[in-house]
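Justification of computing resources. Each target in the renewal requires a structure prediction run like the one illustrated here; the chain below, 538 residues long, is used simply to show the kind of job we budget for.
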Amino acid sequence: MAFTLAIVGRPNVGKSTLFNRLVGKRQAIVDDLPGVTRDRREGKGRLADLAFTVVDTAGFEDVQGEALLARMRAQTEQAVASADAVLLVVDAREGLTPLDQSFARALRKSQARVLLVANKCEGRGGEAGRMEAFRLGFGEPIPVSAEHGEGMGDLYDALAPLIQAKAEAGQAAEEEVFEEEAGGEEESEEPAARGPRPIQLAVVGRPNVGKSTLVNRLIGEDRLLTGPEAGITRDAIAVEWVHRGRALRLVDTAGLRRRAKVVDKLEWLSGEDTKRAIQFAEVVILVLDSTDLLEKQDLYIARQVEEEGRALVLAVNKWDLVEDTKAALAKLERRLEISLPQSRGLPVIPLSAKTGKGLERLLDTAIEMVDIWSRRIPTPALNRWLQAMEDAHLPPLVNGRRLKLRYMSQAKSRPPTFNLFCNLPEAMADSYQRYLVNGLRDAFDMPGIPIRFVLRRSENPYAGKSRHGKPGADRPHSAKPVKGKSPTGKSKSVKPEGSKPAVKKAGGGKAKAGKASAGNARSGKSRAGKSRARRAGF
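Resulting C-alpha cells:
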C-alpha cells in the first residue's frame, strides 16, 4: 500500500501550493483568499525517487457543531487519522498564531507522525518565523518555498526514512502471507496480470442538485462535504471505487451556473475545473433536480458533453419528492426530443441519493454506455447497412447531379467516428446526415451515444489516364498550336513540344488545294444568292 502524506495547517499558509508542487501540476485551486479548499483532495506525489499519495486538506478552524467550517474540520481530522505522516505547514513570514498552536495541540493527541514545515522561506524574510516555529514542539522546522520550489531537498531527507520503513514493513508482511498461503506449492514465474484501468466517470450538474450526496451514497461513506448550502464543492474530487468487479474513478465536480451569473473568480476557476473533468471523462452523469426538470442550464451542460464526444447518462435526483412519476417522465422525454435531438435515446435513471433507490441501475447503465462508446463495428456490416439506407431513401440531387455514397468505415471509437466517402461531400444536406446518424443508432444499438461523421471525397481511379488506360503524362501533348510572332514580325504557327513534323505526300497538295477552292466557290455562291433574296424582299 502506498505511503500517505496529509498536508494540514490553518487557512492560507500555502497547503494547496505545496500539494501542486508535489504532484507536479496545478491540480488544486489556489487563490489569495483564505478558505479556498474545502474537501480533501488526493493526488500521486513524487519527490525525486520517492512515490507516495499526498492529501490536500481544508484550513483548520477551531469551530464545533454543524456549521460548514465544522464539517470542513471533520474532513481534515479524517485525513489525519488515515495518513502515515502529516506535514504541519506554518507561514514563516507571519509567524506563529494562536490557531497554529491550537492545531498543534490537537495533533499531539493523535498518533500521527508530524513533520513541521515552514513555508514562504524564500529570501531572509521568513527566518524569524521559522525560528519561532520551534515552540510547537515538533522538532526543527523544514524551510521550504512551495511557490518557488525551494527546500525540496530538505523535505526529501525528512520523508525518505519514513517511506523506506513503510515499504520494508509492507514487503515483510507480504512475504509472511505468501508463505502461509503457498505452503509447499511451487512459485509461479508469471507476473500477476494487471487489471484494466478505472473507468473515468464525472458527476456534473447545476449547484445544489445532490451531486456530492450521490457520490457519498455510491461509495458508502461521507467522503465528500455536503450540506444545504449551494456551491459547497469547489474542486473536482476523484474517488476510486469498484462496482461488480469494474474499477471506477468517480469525479465529483462543482455546480455549473449560467455564465452571465458567474462574477466571482473562485466560481469561475471551479467551473473551469469541472469542464476539465468532462474532457477527461469517459461517461458523464448529468444530475437533474426532479422538482425543476431540465432547465436551460441543464441543456447547456448536456450539449457541452455531447460536443466533447462523451457518453451521457441523465440521473433524475430527488425522485422521492415526485407525486406523479409517469407524468414527470413523459414531460422529460418530450423535452429531450425537442431540445436534444442530436442525442436521441439518452438513458434516464430516476433515483434518490438520500434513500439509495435506483443507484444500482445507474452504475450498470453507466458501464454499459462505456462499453457501447468503445465499440468498433466491422466494415462489411457498415457498408451493407449503408446500401440498405441508400436504397430506402436516396440522397437529394445536387444541381441535377446524383450524390453517390461509395464507401464507409469506422475511423476510431471513443467516441465512434466514421468516414463516409462520396463524390460531393460538401453538398450533402444536414438532414440526410441526421438520417444516417439516427439509422446508425437504431441498427447497431447505440442510443444516446455521440456519433461523428467525417465526409470525404472519393478519389476517381480514372483521373489522369487516357482512354486506353495509359497515364496522360506519358502520351504526346494534344493541345492545339499556339500562334506566336516570327523574328520578322509575321505571325507563325508554333507547334507543341513532342509533336512529329508534318510530312508532305506526293500529289496530295494539289488535290487538297482543289477541294478547298471548290468549297470556297460554293460558299461564295450561297452568300450571293442570300443577298439577292434580301434585296427582292424575301
